[in-house]
């Protein structure tokens, strides 16, 4: 056990274990009326401001952020593992542009660095993105303990209680009821989301669905057989049947949609130290499962058979590589929507496959001695995953369910062709899908589904992509199984991004509680302002410190006349923009009023969506400390960007404003957003 866990108490409740962390200084106590009411445990009901389902990295960050906002949170974990993939073997972080990692995610990696260096963490500490699993565990334990977050283990979701469009509680299989005003689904599978009746999909969309180019079936060259390998039980004889794991169906055209998902595996922590644990031969081991690999080696392939990326301490994060490796291709199709018992069985199948693979490589006498000796030099790290014999407890669920909501992240977002204006964090990793099936092409075995296409840079993830569609569920946020196409999810699905989105989800949840509105109606400008205060990066390159954005849906907006909401033309800030309908000229007016934290010189910028039907002579009054300055803007051009209205002196507070008028305008007038930036002296 880590030192953090020794500061906790374990309480067993039926089949569940509650880990209660001590409350850190400056945080509200877990007491009656503040959220988790410990005396209420005997009654079978636990209440918190935020109920998080899933103790993944995202779940932990969501709970910690809630506590930092002065509220209570509880984590309900269906299994016994805490930290998800981050503590489950994925110690060589898939980060993309690491400088785009902000907020609590960045703090986690700074804490990892500080732990390795034996120094206190500071806001200026470097991030360390490679680490041993037990170190990640210690850092998460520390965060949970500091913030007094209770974690219920082995508490599997049984039913969801709803009233109208809201979740009122989730009941676990031991009869425990968890209630609260807000819920976060932080599981890799999207189980709470599905149980709440939220729309989702599984599989690969056709390219035509969202105007993409690398979704659906993809027969490509990476992680592919580079030497000819016969797929039949009796070489050259199709009538003898196919070797295990090969699909008998024809290969559809590239870009065709289907219900297949990318392969899963375990991220092993290996070492060559003298105390390593030799690879075990699993029960149910069948050498026939590796006949394809044997033939590939006999055809001349010499490796590598798995990756050996160093994470420190003489250990690795070992992953799939090449044509035949640790990915159990085609064995996971049923997993996303399976029952818990079925998932346990599928996980055991994956464990048997991968342990059998390592045993085969290290021991099968049909393999060259050089191959066997090279693999046998490695073994499981004896001081990692001690409860499971050195084998990682977390299956790498690379994708399962994906929500379908008002905004679907697609390849176009990843490539920067479109940019969500309601950004709640950045993603930047390659569009990465592992293989989805093994097929026969021209009498030879081939892998299908692998895609590895880079992105031009960090890109924003939409707030609408983590909230369900309107009226489906008003108090649930989904930062892991978010709304994204298969190929866009391949870029977003990285542990740092899950943590980023989870922090944003928790912040949005508490804003929704404060405002008494559904999560779909959270003031995005206020959310973004709070996220920036908490170190979240929302745009790339990062925006200037101290910016104030007033969106048309912000509290600081007043209207005269009739304004019509629209999303017809892209490039707007927040969930929509408004226009005057090209009527009510001189009557329709809309004023943006910021709350400026300090007086002084502020640059003012205006945003709109452009179209030929817009007005080319829109009067805009900037009310500042020296009076009123009127600027005319042409809304037929320069859409989807911030356009300067000049720099002015403003007092602190709400005395300044920007007024959009419609007097004498010659087309539709748009009101979208205003930005105030502290001017550089």
Give the tags.
37 strands, 12 helices, FAD/NAD(P)-binding domain, five-stranded antiparallel sheet, Jelly Rolls, 19% helix, alpha+beta, disordered N terminus, 3 domains, 681 residues, seven-stranded mixed sheet
Task: Summarize the structure in words.
With 681 residues, the chain is an alpha+beta fold. It folds into three domains: 271 residues, FAD/NAD(P)-binding domain; 119 residues, no CATH class; 131 residues, Jelly Rolls (Sandwich). Helices cover 19% and strands 23% of the residues. The chain contains twelve helices and 37 strands. The strands form twelve sheets. Strands 1-2-6-5-4-10-25 form a seven-stranded mixed beta sheet. Strand 7 and strand 8 form a beta hairpin. Helix 1 packs parallel to helix 11 and helix 7 crosses helix 8. Keywords: 4Fe-4S, Iron, Iron-sulfur, Metal-binding, Oxidoreductase. One of its GO terms (molecular function) is 4 iron, 4 sulfur cluster binding. This is FAD dependent oxidoreductase.
CATH architecture of the largest domain: 3-Layer(bba) Sandwich
The biggest sheet amounts to: 7 strands, mixed
CATH superfamily of the largest domain: FAD/NAD(P)-binding domain
Tally of separate domains? 3
Cα Rg? 27 Å
Enumerate the strands of the largest sheet in spatial order, edge to edge or round the barrel: 1-2-6-5-4-10-25
Strand content: 15-25%
Give me the CATH fold name of the largest domain. FAD/NAD(P)-binding domain
User: Which structural class is indicated by helix and strand composition?
Assistant: alpha+beta
Q: What's the total count of β strands?
A: 37
Separation, N- and C-terminal Cα atoms: 53 Å
